[in-house]
Every structure is written in structure tokens, then in C-alpha cells.
Hints:
Helix content is about 45%, strand content about 15%. It is an alpha+beta fold. It has a domain at about 30-55. Strands 1-2 form a two-stranded antiparallel ribbon.
Amino acid sequence: MSVTREDGGRLNAFAKEPPIQVVVPGGGLSRPTLLLLIGGSLLVLAMLAVAVGIS
Length: 55
């Protein structure tokens, strides 16, 4: 962590930044991600159906 001295004698500490990671395009959706999206959508639809059924 680098520390600098400001006016008035105050110290200011700066955190060390992590290295930048380059994301490769064209990753697409993997099977687990697709299943999670479909499952989440079905869950939201089921909750809406229950809410409409209660009211």
C-alpha cells in the first residue's frame, strides 16, 4: 500500500490495484448457466402464479 503525505501533514493511503484480466469474447452460455436462467425464470413465473391465485 503506497502512502503519500498531504498538506497539513495528513497521510493518505492508496490500495494496491489487482492486475487487469482480459476477457475473451465468444464465451457464450454454458449449460449450467442456461439451466440456471431457465430455472430462475420458471421460479419467477411460479411465484407470479401463486400471487395471482392468492389475490
